[in-house]
Amino acid sequence: MTDQPKHTRRNVILGLAVAGFAAATIPPAIAARRPIGLRAVALTNIHTGEHLNTVYWADGKYVPDAMKRINWLLRDHHTDEVRRMSPDLLDLLTKLHAKLRTREPFQVVSAYRSPATNAMLAAMTDGVAQHSLHIQGMAVDIRVPDRSLVKVQHAALSLAAGGVGFYPRSDFVHVDVGRIRHW
């Protein structure tokens, strides 16, 4: 019979301290490569009525089929033109969803816009940037059914991950993965 180590309070504390030191000394480059679970997004396009709830990142990479379905749902609904949406934007939405602590999907007011659609909207209304990040697939205008626009705005601002625009008269919050700014 072999001697089993004694699980004294001192040995347990020492073991936890060693494990904590080992975890803290993992080089950041290695730590950054470790996959962190799954990432999912739930979206409803208010113009087309389409819904999507999908895992778009698994096993340390983006899931191609899920990304295609997301790109389709976030297309320019005026022209059905599709553009590859920024994976960083999806990651931002995932973080925002967690911050809001909701189970409701994001209601998408506007995502990708073709240059022609963007020009048409800019001619019709104020507040549409000529070189909008919507054209690059880096922006989305959203609302969340069970959260006020102010809560969505504050949560987005707290992430400090890009631009945040507040449009209460139009009933949406703009988020993008451009430079950090707000209006």
Output the keywords:
alpha+beta; 6 helices; 183 residues; 8-stranded mixed β-sheet
Instruction: Summarize the main sheet.
Output: 8 strands, mixed
Helicity range: 25-40%
The secondary-structure class comes to alpha+beta
What's the Cα radius of gyration? 21 Å
Could you state the oligomeric state of the chains shown? single chain
Strand content: 15-25%
The low-confidence runs, each spanning 5 or more residues with pLDDT under 50, are: 1-7, 10-35
Order of helices and strands: HHEEEHHEHEHEEE
Basic shape: globular
Mean residue pLDDT: 86
**How many helices in DSSP terms?**
6
Describe the structure.
- The protein is α+β, with helices and mostly antiparallel strands and 183 residues long.
- Helices cover 37% and strands 21% of the residues.
- The protein has helices at 9-24, 28-33, 64-73, 87-100, 115-124, 149-159, and strands at 39-45, 51-58, 61-62, 106-110, 139-143, 163-167, 172-176, 181-182.
- An 8-stranded mixed sheet has the order 3-2-1-4-5-7-6-8.
- Strand 1 and strand 2 (51-58) form a beta hairpin.
- The N and C termini lie far apart (71 Å).
- 26% of the residues are buried.
- Mean pLDDT is 86; it is low at 1-7 and 10-35.
SSE inventory with pairings:
Blueprint: H1 9-24, H2 28-33, E1 39-45, E2 51-58, E3 61-62, H3 64-73, H4 87-100, E4 106-110, H5 115-124, E5 139-143, H6 149-159, E6 163-167, E7 172-176, E8 181-182
Parallel strand pairs: 1-4, 6-8
Antiparallel strand pairs: 1-2, 2-3, 4-5, 5-7, 6-7
Helix pairs in contact: 4-6
Briefly say what this structure is.
The chain is of the alpha+beta class and 183 residues long.
